[in-house]
Amino acid sequence: MHKKNRWFGFIAAIVIALALAVSSTPALAGSKAEIDSSVDAALQKLMATTPTAKELSKIAKGILVFPHIVKAGFIVGGQAGEGALVKNGKIESYYNTVALSYGMQAGAQAFGYALFFTTDATMTYLDSSSGWEIGVGPGITIVDEGVARSLSTTTAKEGIYAFFFDQKGLMAGAGLQGSKITRIYP
């Protein structure tokens, strides 16, 4: 049993070191002003660099932005970050996202993502949920280059569209499945 504890401690130290190496800003910003600033900057950059996101923002009932998520793992992994819901150009409420995973994984990365809620039903689901696990509830369409080519305000029929941005680090892929999104009050 002692060897297992030592091995776990070693793995935990590597995960923490990798997370700190990838992260240039803290994953958990803390104050409203810090979250507001990060969300505004991330949303402006996303709109400037991704025409499909800019187009969808015209019909979105709300945009949930997580500007900086840190993900790290070695066999066991986790990711976390804070963000805000933007409605009509103004920040309305704050959220955090946390996910744990187990399996073949090693490394660390930082990334951001934005969820565009395009229907009243999906917006109501978020507003009425005390905690929402992605993969349970409304479906999400990940917008990659292929989806972006055919997506417009007239073809957007799904309720939620996800855009990833600012991926950095040594871990393959950014994922949302199993992420728990919870309202917070910083």
Describe the overall structure.
It is built from five helices and six strands; from the N terminus they run H-H-H-E-E-H-E-E-H-E-E. The protein is α+β, with helices and mostly antiparallel strands and 186 residues long. It has one domain. Strands 1, 2, 3, 4, 5 and 6 form a six-stranded mixed β-sheet that branches. A hairpin with a 2-residue loop joins strand 1 and strand 2 (90-117). Helix 2 (32-49) crosses helix 3 (51-57). Mean pLDDT is 76; it is low at 18-29 and 146-155.
**Count of distinct strands:** 6
Percentage of residues in helical conformation: 25-40%
Low-confidence stretches: 18-29, 146-155
Secondary-structure element string: HHHEEHEEHEE
Structural class: alpha+beta
Reported for the largest beta sheet, the result is: 6 strands, mixed
Spatial shape: globular
Overall pLDDT level: 76
How much beta, percentage-wise? Answer: 35-45%
What is the C-alpha radius of gyration, as a whole number of Å? 17 Å
- Overall tally of domains: 1
| DSSP summary: helix tally | 5
Q: Kindly, what is the distance between the CA atoms of the first and last residues, rounded to a whole number of angstroms?
A: 40 Å
